[in-house]
Structure formats: C-alpha cells, structure tokens
Specification:
Blueprint (H helix, E strand, L loop, with lengths): L9 E8 L3 H11 L4 H9 L6 H19 L6 E10 L3 E6 L5 E6 L2 E9 L4
Antiparallel strand pairs: 1-5, 2-5, 3-4
Helix pairs in contact: 2-3
C-alpha cells in the first residue's frame, strides 16, 4: 500500500517485523492522528507486544524529522500510520495419525508518517 506523502511529511518504516499484521494494526489504530507526545504515552502503557516495534518506528520518524528536516519534535503529529503484510514464514507441526498441520508465522511492514501540527 505505497501511499504518497506530502512535502512536509516525514516517514519511517520497519520491515519484516515478526508480529502478525492484524495484531499490529490494533496498536497503530490507537496512535493515528494523535500528537507525538500522546502517541508515545499510549504506546508506553500499551500491553500488546506490537507496541514496542511501533514505538521504535515512531521514534525513528521523529528523529528523521528533527535531523533531516529541522522540525521540532514537540510540534509533530502522527499524520498516517499503517501496517502492511510481509512475507509469511511457514512451519509444520506434527499431528495425530502421522499428519501435519501448517503454522504461519506472519511478518509486518510498519510505517509511521509524521507531519507538523496544523495551526488553524
């Protein structure tokens, strides 16, 4: 889902994260359209395992904005955040009567886009 970003937006992506996309989307949905401080607070106290990689991507996006574009981190807002599906690692588990069942270990590509807060 390659989305186009605007000129004043900054993006960070973590690829091949070993978290199922469905579970990561639950975390990402909570921080979308929130300020960076509020998003960090939500992620810090979230009990889900996907909160840690999402927080790392958010911090990376803020660092990209500060170092590459000269923006102030406290004025940023999470403009977009989405999780795409990565490749699935397939494993097999032995089952009854000599059969086997497949276990899918799913991966995610987590993307966070930050932009300056609109003063209206």
């Amino acid at each position: 889902m390659a989305q186009r970003i605007k000129e004043n937006e900054v993006r960070a992506t973590a690829k091949y994260v070993r978290v199922a996309p469905r579970k990561a989307r639950l975390v990402v949905d909570q921080i979308r359209n929130k300020s960076v401080e509020k998003a960090r607070e939500l992620l810090q106290f979230n009990n889900r395992a996907a909160a840690e990689p999402v927080a790392k991507v958010l911090n990376s996006a803020v660092a990209n904005a500060e170092n590459n574009r000269g923006m102030r981190g406290s004025d940023l807002v999470v403009a977009a955040a989405y999780v795409d599906e990565g490749p699935t690692i397939k494993r097999f588990r032995p089952r009854a009567k000599g059969s086997a069942s497949r276990i899918n270990k799913r991966t995610s590509h987590i993307t966070v886009v930050v932009a300056p807060r609109k003063e209206a």
